């Protein structure tokens, strides 16, 4: 862009502070021995990541089973399912049926609409107009904008319309309507998709939970 063009932009939009890219310094790392139990920490960190992977897989299976329990509850009672205590061997945990922080998707909302199932719809972003980001990123076009403001005759679209965005959540009425559905597969899908299943307060029925946990993990072949 020519200097006179930059000057034109500055005259119309105001002077801007000049910035310059700073060169990223090269990383130089020296090897130093640490007189601490660093080796043990790294070993535990590697083990914890391996265990986290196993936990993630197991958690999915637990949540799938909990989803079946919650679906049965909805079908039977026609309301938001109750949380319950899951028990397995010496282990127990609370299984919770909770609203998703971000809500469920617009696709699920469309299915609910199709089946006349009520839910809560909250506007996250109101419909409004914005400057086309492609124009903002193109200095040549910004120059044309600057020159064309008085003429109001620009060869490209500057203003765009931002569609409204919504957050969808279930209500007490949602479950009564889901329970009334004749399609069993749809009841199960909707019950699982409009909420999230959380597992909290895990416990081991043992005087020494740490030792018991190590014993279980060792028997499972993880240690």
Describe this structure in words.
- With 223 residues, this protein is α+β, with helices and mostly antiparallel strands.
- The protein has a domain at 44-119 and 174-223.
- The protein is built from eight helices and seven strands.
- The protein has helices spanning 3-13, 38-77, 106-114, 133-136, 139-148, 172-179, 184-193, 209-219, and strands spanning 84-88, 91-98, 120-125, 128-131, 159-162, 165-169, 196-204.
- The strands form three sheets. A three-stranded antiparallel beta sheet has the order 1-2-7. A two-stranded antiparallel sheet has the order 3-6. Strands 4-5 form a two-stranded antiparallel ribbon.
- Strand 1 (84-88) and strand 2 form a beta hairpin.
- The model has no long low-confidence stretch (mean pLDDT 81).
Please describe the structure with a list of short key phrases separated by commas or semicolons:
223 residues; alpha+beta; three-stranded antiparallel β-sheet; two-stranded antiparallel ribbon; 8 helices; 7 strands; 18% strand; flat
Short description:
This protein has 223 residues and is an alpha+beta fold. Helices cover 46% and strands 18% of the residues.
Residue fraction in strands: 15-25%
Report the structural category. alpha+beta
Helical stretch count? 8
Distance between the termini: 64 Å
The radius of gyration computed from the alpha-carbon positions, rounded to a whole number of angstroms, is: 29 Å
| Number of extended strands | 7
DSSP helix fraction: 40-55%
